[in-house]
Amino acid sequence: MLTDSDPPAADLPEKEFFAPEWTCLPWTPWIPFSADKAGFHQVPTEPGLYRIRATGKPHLMYIGETKKPLHQRLLDLRMELKACGQMPWSDPHAESPALWAWQDAEGLEYECSAAPLDASTSVRRGMESYLLYRYRQEQGVSPACSFGRFHPRYRRSTERKANLRGGRLVEGQQDNPAAGPSYPPLVPMGGPGEPGWMGLTWSSGIALTPEQVPAAPAGPGVFVLTDSATREIVLIGQSGNCAKRLAELGRRSWERRVLLVSVYIPEKVLLPHQLRETETDLTGNFFEYYKKSPEFQFRALP
C-alpha cells in the first residue's frame, strides 16, 4: 500500500517539493485542512497553484491549479472531504474522490500549500505541468491522486449528472486499474521536437491531412504537432488510439496552417494514467525549455 514503508514524521527527509521556494514560486507554509478559520486565511485569495500532502508522509498526494481564488478552491475541497460519509462526486473537483478514498482507507489527514500566480490559463496550466514534471523527476513517481490515479480497493464516483457514487470495492472484486504503477519519468534529452527528445523514438513527421494521417501509427501513445513553417511544437497529445485521434485532428482547420505529426508508440501498452503522465512530462519539459505552453495545448482547437 501507499504508506507501508513511510518513515515516521519526525524522520521525514528534506524534499525539494516540500520547500517554500520550490521552483521559485512563493509557496505558503503547510496549512492543515483541520486549521481554524484564521489559520486557513493564510491561503492566498488570488488564482494559482497548490500542492497537497498527507501529514507525516514523504510524498505529495496532488498538484493542481485554479483560476478561482486559491482560498475558496481549497476551502471547498476540504469541506467536500469532511461533509459526509460518502465519496464526493468527480465534479467540480476531480481530485476529491481519490483524496477521500485514501482518507477513508487509511485515516490520512491532509495539508496544503499554495502559490499565487495571476496569469493566463495557458501559463497557469503550463506551470502545473511543469510542477508535475519536476515532481516526477525528483520522486520517480507521480502524486498519488494526480492523473486519475486511485486507491486500489475503491471505485471512483462519476460526475454528479451521471449519479453513480463510488466507494470501497467488495471482496473478490478486481483492484482498480487506476492504482497501477506510475510510468517511469521520461529522461530529459535533447530539445523539444528533436528526433530523440526525452529519450523517445519518434516517427518521422508526416503532414496532418486526411490523405496522410492514415499512415500514422495505431495504438496507445503520445504525439506532437509541429508547425511546418516555424518548426515549433503547437500541441502535445496522447490517446489510447493515436490513429483515430489524429484522424479527428486532421479534419480541423488549424487556421490554414500546415502541421506535421510525429508519434511515439511504446512497446508496452500503457494505462490511461500512464499516457497522461508521459504527455505531461513532455509538456513540462517544453515549458521548462521555452517558459510557455505549446500554442494550442490549453485552448479550444481551431
Summarize the structure.
This protein has 302 residues and is α+β, with helices and mostly antiparallel strands.
Can you tell me about this structure?
The chain has 302 residues and is of the alpha+beta class. The protein folds into two domains: 9-179, GIY-YIG endonuclease (3-Layer(aba) Sandwich); 197-290, GIY-YIG endonuclease. The protein contains six helices and ten strands, in the order E-H-E-E-H-H-E-H-E-E-E-E-E-H-E-H. The protein has helices at residues 37-40, 70-82, 96-106, 121-139, 242-250, 272-290; strands at residues 31-32, 48-54, 60-66, 110-116, 154-155, 167-168, 206-207, 221-227, 233-239, 259-264. Strands 1-4-2-3 form a four-stranded antiparallel sheet. It has a four-stranded antiparallel sheet with strand order 7-10-8-9, with helices on both faces. Strands 5-6 form a two-stranded antiparallel ribbon. Helix 4 packs across helix 6. The termini are far apart. The relative contact order is 0.13.
Radius of gyration: 20 Å
Number of strands: 10
What portion of the residues fall into strands of 2 or more residues?
A: 15-25%
Helix content: 10-25%
What is the level 1 CATH name of the largest domain?
Answer: Alpha Beta
CATH fold group of the largest domain:
GIY-YIG endonuclease
Domains (count): 2
Poorly predicted sequence stretches spanning 5 or more consecutive residues:
3-10
User: Looking at the chains present, what oligomeric state does this protein adopt?
Assistant: single chain
Which structural class do the helices and strands define?
alpha+beta
Total count of helical runs of at least 4 residues: 6
Task: Tell me about the largest β-sheet.
Answer: 4 strands, antiparallel
